[in-house]
Every structure is written in C-alpha cells, then in structure tokens.
Specification:
By secondary structure, this protein is an alpha/beta fold. Helix content is 52%, strand content 13%. The chain has 14 helices and 8 strands.
Length: 299
C-alpha cells in the first residue's frame, strides 16, 4: 500500500523502515530535516509540508501520524483534516488520551474521514521484532488498511479492539501494567543488591530467571542486557520519567471505582525518584524525634 507517514522520531523512523521492507510505499514528512533525510535514505519519498504529503497520495489516502501526544497531535490532526477528503483514513499511532481519540473520531467522521487510534507498543525494538498494535475505530476502515498493520506487527500482534478510543484505552492500561511490572523487578533487584555479603551477579540471575521461572519475560531479558553493560548501573542517575499513560490509568481507575494500588504506587515511585531530597521524609524524621527521641541525621 501507499501510506503517508508524519513523525519520524525514534519509533516513527523505524516503523517506516519496516513498512518499506514489507514493500509498502512511504511518503514521509517531519519538520526535522535530518529525520527526513534519514527516511529518504531508507527509501521513503520526502515531503516539505503536510500539503505536499497529501498531494503525493492518491485517493482514498492513508496517513499515519506518529507524533508526541497533546498539542502537537491535536494541531497535526486539525491540519490534516482540513486537506484530507471523504474516504481517506487517518491513523494516530501515538500515545493519545483515549477520550481525545473518541472526540477526534466523531469530528473526522463528520467530514467523511475514517479515524483509527492505534496504540503502538514495541519501542526501539519494533523494527526487528515487530510492533504490538491495539486498534480502535471503524472495523471497515481497519480491514481496508489491514495490510499495513500486518506488516508492522509480528504474528498475532495486531487486533481491532473496539470503536474510536478503544485502541488508545487498551494501550493506556497496557502502559499502566508496565509501570507495575517495572516497579516489581526494580524492587526485587534492589533487595538483592543490598545483600552485599552474597555479592550477587544480577545479570546472571536475570539470565537464570528467563529459563523456566514464572517471572521470565522480555523485560527481564532487557534487564540481563542492562546488567551485562553496567553490573551496578553506576552510570545511570536514579531519575525515572513518565510519559502520561500511568497517570491516565490511575485517573481512570479512580473514575471507575477500581482499586489499582500497585499501578498507583508505581507511578508515585517515579515522582519520588525526581526529588533531590524528600521534605516529607524530613517531616517524618523530625516527628519521630519529637515523640520518641529517635534522633535525626544532620546535614
């Protein structure tokens, strides 16, 4: 198929390469010239604007956007909607809030444009192993562009999961679960690291656990790789960012009266990692000293 692709960052740049390797024709746009040149080297047709991209696609057009969630996604969709036509299909593969995708689906439907929200998982490894795609929107539009999903995903790695918003909702929960899994592994490895008298080899243990253990996983395989490069992770600062989906998952749990303590605490641990020092810990230390004379550690 011929597909317009907007956004050629860490994931988008690799996704177009997988598409091209799968014999799809890619017309690409990104405001960053270096990313556009790299896409051209991989076999994509570069364009200098969204208008040029649309003009290089035959109707009915297919456009995939892979840009950061929030204002950039909103602006890109509004711009594309103004120049696309009835019968075209627009796919948002970024991590948009599912409620925004529900709204966008309705707005584009009024213009006769089909909108698919494709939750995309696979990170920088997707080029090699494929991307897991959770797709929401009209089933007819999904089936029409299914060859693209089939190329991007591994076997059984894509599915139509429901109406507009469902794809990004499933991806949101997926990432919430990821927060909890990462926190579980992190705490376990920290406990082992603290047992200095055993001098445990965490890379070796990661490798061991990936053979027959109930906690084996791709994340554990990645842990093995990380520990092989830096056994005590001494080159990494203990600062953990979040991209929003964990917050949305916790908010959805609260809104739906669903208890999700593990995911919630995993999110809060990320906030804790960003503190140079914890004022709340100071308060606790001061109060323990006040009521029990436990003493405090002075600077």
């Amino acid at each position: 198929m011929k597909i317009g692709f907007v956004g050629l960052g860490k994931m988008g740049g690799r996704m177009i390469e997988r598409l091209i390797n799968g014999d799809h024709e890619v017309v690409a746009y990104d405001p960053v010239q270096e990313a556009l040149k790299n896409a051209e080297k991989k076999g994509a047709t570069p364009t200098g604007s969204l208008d040029e991209l649309i003009n290089k696609l035959e109707t009915p057009r297919l456009v995939w956007i892979m840009v950061p969630s929030g204002a950039i996604t909103e602006e890109t969709i509004i711009s594309l909607a103004s120049i696309m036509e009835a019968g075209d299909v627009l796919i948002d593969g970024g991590n948009s809030l599912y409620k925004d995708s529900m709204r966008r689906g309705k707005e584009l439907q009024n213009k006769g444009i089909s909108f698919l929200d494709a939750g995309t998982s696979g990170g920088i490894w997707g080029l090699e192993v494929g991307y897991c795609l959770m797709v929401g929107g009209e089933e007819e539009a999904f089936k029409r562009v299914e060859p693209v999903f089939k190329t991007l995903a591994p076997d059984d790695g894509y599915a139509h999961v429901g109406p507009s918003g469902a794809g990004h909702f499933v991806k949101m929960v997926h990432n919430g679960i990821e927060y909890a899994l990462l926190q579980g592994y992190a705490e376990g490895f920290e406990i082992m690291m603290a047992k200095e008298e055993f001098s445990l080899d965490l890379g070796k243990i990661s490798h061991l656990w990936n053979h027959g253990s109930v906690v084996r996983s791709w994340l554990l395989e990645l842990a093995e790789g990380a520990f092989s490069k830096d056994p005590r992770l001494e080159s990494i600062k203990d600062y953990v960012e979040d991209s929003g989906e964990g917050r949305w998952t916790v908010a959805e749990a609260i809104e739906s009266d669903v208890p999700a303590p593990i995911i919630t605490l995993s999110l809060l641990e990320r906030f804790r990692s960003r503190q140079e020092e914890s004022f709340s810990a100071k308060v606790i230390a001061a109060l323990r000293d006040e009521f029990g004379g436990h003493g405090v550690v002075k600077k």
